[in-house]
Amino acid sequence: MLLLYLISLLLCWMANATTCSQRRKVVQAFNVHRNASSDTTPLQVGNGNFAFGVDVTGLQTFKPFGTLSTWGWHNFSLPTTPGQTSVADFTGLDWWTHGRLVNYNQPNPAENDISNWLIQNPQRVNLGNVGFAFGGVKVDESELKQTTQVLDLWTGKITSTFVYQGSSVEVETSADPGADAVGIKVTSDLLSNGKLGIFFDFPYSDRNKFDAPHVGVWNATASHTTEFVHTTDHDAVIKHALDSTTYFMSAKWSGKGTVTGPASGSHRYVLTTPGSKSLELTVAYSPSQQLSQTTYKSMVKASRTWWGTFWNKGAFIDLTGVNNANATELQRRIILSQYLLAVNSASSNPPQESGLVNNGWYGKFHLEMNLWHLLPFARWNHFELLWRSTPNMYRRFLQSSLERAAAQGYKGARWGKMTDPTGRSAPGEINSLLIWQQPHPMYFAETEYRAYPNATTLERWDEVLMATADFMASFAYHNASTGRYDIGPPMYPVSENTNPNATINPAFELAYWRFGLDVAIKWKTRVGKPIPQEWLTVRDNLAPLPVEVDTYVTYEGIPNMWTDNSTTNDHPAMSGIYGLLPPPASGPPLNLTILQNTAAKIKETWALEESYGWDFSMLAMNSLRLGNVDQAIKYLLHPIFQFDDAGYPVGGSRVPTPYFPNSASLLIAMAMMAGGWDGAPGLHFPKGWDVKVDGFTPAM
Ligand SMILES: *[C@@H]1O[C@H](CO)[C@@H](O)[C@H](O)[C@H]1NC(C)=O
Ligand SMILES: *[C@@H]1O[C@H](CO)[C@@H](O)[C@H](O)[C@H]1NC(C)=O
Ligand SMILES: *[C@@H]1O[C@H](CO)[C@@H](O)[C@H](O)[C@H]1NC(C)=O
Ligand SMILES: *[C@@H]1O[C@H](CO)[C@@H](O)[C@H](O)[C@H]1NC(C)=O
Ligand SMILES: *[C@@H]1O[C@H](CO)[C@@H](O)[C@H](O)[C@H]1NC(C)=O
Ligand SMILES: *[C@@H]1O[C@H](CO)[C@@H](O)[C@H](O)[C@H]1NC(C)=O
Ligand SMILES: *[C@@H]1O[C@H](CO)[C@@H](O)[C@H](O)[C@H]1NC(C)=O
Ligand SMILES: *[C@@H]1O[C@H](CO)[C@@H](O)[C@H](O)[C@H]1NC(C)=O
Ligand SMILES: *[C@@H]1O[C@H](CO)[C@@H](O)[C@H](O)[C@H]1NC(C)=O
């Protein structure tokens, strides 16, 4: 043991840039301290597939923050409207598409009820709340004195203390790194005299598109049921049934105790453990009735090991040698973002925009956001977290995506948009017409191949890339008068604010189609299989990028690009062609003058105060490639691009908080600053910044 320890110290010491003890110092300098509950964000412990959000008590005592999982979902009952009582009754809408009628998965006014049902169902379930019960007395947060709380990022543990009626309470909260379970330790005299217990509560689902900051309703008690299925003096299992969704909560505690309940008109149960001043409790949630679970002590140990390995293994940026408030703020954001993405996004399903904090878009995930969410795991050398979902989720959704394309008369697989774990894409005009999620598999595959250029990588992506490229080639429309292949109409570009029937050849999608087909073509060469002629024909005859007044514009023929403020808002995706995407590997090169002009026009005219999310990171990456590091830093610290005291990305006027694509995109941009890109590898930080980086490879 000692020998192993010494070897690991030696390895740390040999790693030239950031030693393990230095990493620990940097990480823990950004431990989160609170002394009151936030109205908007919890502190969380979790593991990517499960997270437990807490208020200032270290539990969910005053604020019912979420206990969210990858597997917990619920359907409301289907409508009873005649003709709209089953999923099969939904028929969508037909739109003209290059001279033929194509059926799109859009809400049909004649089928309002089933359309809405398909949008609102299933929703992600808040599995339950665990909080302090004060011996039957209703207590307000203001009655707690000397509240302190710290989230230790290095061990994944939250320690909270407070004084209630003169007695101190200490609470430690950790999550199991490998199970849907939380471990809680409470130390207080109040436990032994029965003035302090633990409650378990279970909400019903809500129909809100944005169910934030809290998920569920607690007063619809008649709509769902809870019951004991097992109880002894050291454990209890409660079954929760919401319509056809059923799952179990299993609690185990040290010493002897009793769970009673539910209190009338509620689904609240209370655990009391008189006779001891200390309580160790584990609470696990599972769709199956599972009684065995790890002890509190082994859970805490596993959490410490998992997080220690996480921080030591991945890539690292140390800005603490830079004496500048901007560097300190960036350091804070990248440390907290790494913690939050591992807790909220490292799941076996694609992550949702608000992770496992609360529900945005009913808790569903958006496949066009997937690249932002998951790419940081690759760029920061945590492929093990990327591989939890990717590429297997593309394989899981392949059959339904092949069917979606075939029903519309296309070859290959058309990936869905706002998706639930079955792979079904929710009806919506934008949902059905957005296309920039299509080439994402190529981006993931190529990124993975650069890190692991071997047969395993080639094999596991081949089928998905083939089906994706087949769709992309078949979707491009051969324009007989120009001889070019056009993209759209109808379609929505990244910015979702154009007329879909007029949108043709958008800059970002054209560039991304070329990138995707280039990767697919290279892939076929690598696996030694023939390249489908159609891929080559389409790639080599793609319409040129739209240019007006010496700038790249949103789409070909867009009226008044830079003079009409209705076009200079939403996502400035043309900056992504030389930010998120590498320069083209085929076809005409990008024109640097036009790129510079475009960046300048965006800076001058864009309604950035209405922008949100990853716009700032995308603009920062564009600035980096154009050689303007200071502008990149300005974008990353733009006043609208906000992260709260615990690092949660603030959503703003159009999306709820948290909006994790912000955190993820920040990490992608920072990886580019730390690793450079092909042709310009190495560091790209402002002059005079003494930065240490470790473990980055150049971006594409
Ligand atoms: C609580 O935290 C806030 C913000 O960090 C701080 O300004 C305040 O002084 C703290 N209050 C106490 C009583 O510690
Ligand atoms: C919700 O209903 C859909 C459509 O019948 C079904 O595919 C899905 O599995 C259901 N999900 C849950 C959680 O019940
Ligand atoms: C687009 O065209 C379809 C007919 O193909 C029409 O039903 C739809 O309303 C049009 N959409 C817009 C936004 O103009
Ligand atoms: C639950 O509370 C909400 C908000 O106060 C209220 O609108 C709703 O009618 C209540 N529902 C029930 C079933 O009591
Ligand atoms: C390819 O690399 C991955 C990651 O290191 C490894 O798991 C896999 O075994 C490798 N495959 C081959 C064929 O070497
Ligand atoms: C062919 O391309 C031209 C130029 O982009 C465009 O005006 C025309 O509408 C396209 N034709 C069809 C049938 O889409
Ligand atoms: C780039 O675009 C500018 C502005 O339109 C033009 O003057 C220049 O010739 C172009 N450069 C190349 C290499 O095409
Ligand atoms: C565009 O400008 C008009 C007139 O100045 C203004 O009323 C409107 O709010 C602006 N719209 C946007 C999206 O900024
Ligand atoms: C920090 O960044 C802001 C905006 O990008 C800039 O105005 C300011 O000068 C920078 N501060 C320091 C100390 O470099």
TrEMBL record:
Single Gene Ontology MF annotation: catalytic activity
InterPro entries, A to Z: 6-hairpin_glycosidase_sf, 6hp_glycosidase-like_sf
Highest taxon above the source species: Eukaryota
Biological process per Gene Ontology, one example term: carbohydrate metabolic process
Entry keyword set: Signal
Gene3D superfamilies assigned to the protein according to its UniProt record, in alphabetical order: 1.50.10.10
Signal sequence region: 1-17
Protein name, per record: Six-hairpin glycosidase-like protein
